[in-house]
Here is the input.
Amino acid sequence: MRHAKKGRKLGTDASHTKAMLRSLAAALLANERIKTTETRAKEVRTLVDRIITWGKRGDVHSRRLALAELGDQALVKKVFDDIAPRFAERPGGYTRILKLGPRKGDAAPMVIMELVD
Here is the structure.
């Protein structure tokens, strides 16, 4: 039973799901736009919003939390110095999901996920 287990499985075990979401979040924060499936985008949205909120807070504890989540010091610096100040007046909802349609191979619904400006 999956009592008290939040989030979608995404067809893999827990460690692979966590690694995939971490990678997608890092790619989105580095490039500010990614193309992925709809369910993955909906799942990574919460992680990215949490990291940007830490960046808006800007203290040492938030920086360490972001580093533990992303694992890349340069990316954490970019989030805290470049991305988070752009959303200083915004109370949440830092990402946008634009639907593209089905993928050719398996008809999975594809989306473009980007940071709102």
About this structure: Helices lie at 14-31, 38-57, 60-70, 73-86.
